[in-house]
Amino acid sequence: MKRLALAVAASLAAIAGSAPAQETPPVSGYQFLLPETQALQDDDFANPGMLWVELGGKLWDEPAGNGTSCQNCHGAPEAMRGVGTRYPQWSQTEGRVISLEQQVNQCRAERQQADPFGYSSQELVSLSALVMHQSRGLPMSVATDGPAASAYRRGKAYYETRRGQLNLACSNCHVDQVGSRLRGEPISQGQVNGFPIYRQLWQDMGSVGRMIAWCNDAVRAEPLAEGSQMAVELELYLRSLGNGLAIETPAVRR
Ligand code: HEC
Ligand code: HEC
């Protein structure tokens, strides 16, 4: 991480006064991958992310707390097709925008009367991957109006605000520098249509929250805590940037 931050400082010192952002159509991070990484994502037998989807499938059928399982109330996971396209979404019960992970934990706590999973736990990432995977190929379509409008505005403001020792906003890289190389790595639009993703760098599956924290760290900013309201609202904004992009879960990234 230290090496990345130094490389970032060196290569981005020059873009402090870069051109204003232009409106470009959303492009999946998939398009920025090497062909061999694309091939890994495309092959369900080779895609490491499918292991988390499978684990999610096991948890789906497992009774917890009061003896109920996800399956008891929701039927087969396939019944979740389309659900993942809408999250984060406004929750009437909570009176705020919640992520898919938080919705799963809400069922776990209230419907199953079991301890909620840790936000970055393997269990929650797996269930989230399972649910998102059911929507593979469907266009993302989060709502940014109505009760979600103020969360959307806060997410957008966060995205555009410079922070950290390198004084960079998300948009300075993922809007202004798309296609530029950072230590040989092309910078993508930072789309989230493949999440949770299997990241080769992590050798692990990660949520949008984990990726946000990683990018915060890259500019030496205080990482947003995964599952914090600000992180969920930033995720809403990120998903809205990709509205219309096909969901790829589980995507493979470098
Ligand atoms: C006792 C029944 C019950 C169990 C068990 C249960 N749920 Fe739910 N779940 C519901 C109900 C009812 C709703 C819709 C009402 C709401 O939004 O709270 C719901 C909503 C959801 C949604 C949002 C659906 C949408 O259209 O937005 C997801 C995702 C979900 N559940 C996942 C899970 C997972 C994963 C598990 C197992 C860890 C689980 N649920 C366990 C009853 C249950
Ligand atoms: C210094 C440049 C830089 C900044 C600033 C930055 N990122 Fe990133 N980000 C990267 C790099 C490099 C990657 C990995 C390659 C890629 O997909 O662009 C990445 C990847 C991502 C991805 C994964 C994309 C995919 O297809 O899986 C997301 C999401 C993301 N960033 C979000 C953010 C958010 C949100 C912020 C602001 C908090 C941010 N980034 C700030 C450099 C940056």
Q: Please tally the β strands and state the result.
A: 7
Query: What is the name of the CATH architecture of the largest domain?
Result: Orthogonal Bundle
* Relative strand content: 5-15%
Structural class: mainly alpha
CATH class category of the largest domain: Mainly Alpha
Rg over alpha carbons: 18 Å
User: Largest sheet, described in full?
Assistant: 3 strands, mixed
User: What string gives the helices and strands in order?
Assistant: HHHHEEHHHHEEEEHHE
- CATH homology-level superfamily of the largest domain: Cytochrome c-like domain
N-to-C CA distance: 15 Å
Give the number of helices: 10
* Ligand identities: heme C
| Low-pLDDT ranges | 13-21
Biggest sheet strand order reads 6-5-7
Total number of distinct structural domains? 2
Helical residue percent? 25-40%
CATH fold-level label of the largest domain: Cytochrome Bc1 Complex, Chain D, domain 2
Family: Belongs to the SoxA family.
EC number: 2.8.5.2
Subcellular location: Periplasm
Keywords: Electron transport, Heme, Iron, Metal-binding, Periplasm, Signal, Transferase, Transport
Give me a quick take on this structure.
With 254 residues, the chain is mainly α.
What does this molecule look like?
The two termini are 15 Å apart. The protein has two domains: 2-12 and 25-43 and 144-253, Cytochrome c-like domain (Cytochrome Bc1 Complex, Chain D, domain 2, Orthogonal Bundle); 50-133, Cytochrome c-like domain (Cytochrome Bc1 Complex, Chain D, domain 2), CATH 1.10.760. The protein contains ten helices and seven strands. The chain has helices at residues 2-12, 35-42, 50-61, 70-74, 100-111, 122-133, 149-160, 170-174, 208-218, 229-241; strands at 89-91, 96-98, 181-182, 185-186, 197-199, 204-206, 251-253. It is mainly α and 254 residues long. Helices cover 40% and strands 7% of the residues. Helix 5 (100-111) packs across helix 6 and helix 7 packs across helix 10 (229-241). The strands form three sheets. A three-stranded mixed β-sheet has the order 6-5-7. It has a two-stranded antiparallel ribbon with strand order 1-2. Strands 3-4 form a two-stranded antiparallel ribbon. The protein is globular. It binds heme C (2 copies). Residues 68, 70, 72-74, 83, 93, 103-104, 107-108, 111-112, 127, 131 line the site of one heme C. One heme C is lined by residues 8, 12, 29, 168, 170, 172-174, 182, 185, 187-188, 190-192, 194, 197, 211-212, 215-216, 218-219, 234, 238, 253. Residues 1-21 form the signal peptide. It is an enzyme of class 2 (transferase). One of its GO terms (cellular component) is cytochrome complex. Keywords: Electron transport, Heme, Iron, Metal-binding, Periplasm, Signal, Transferase, Transport.
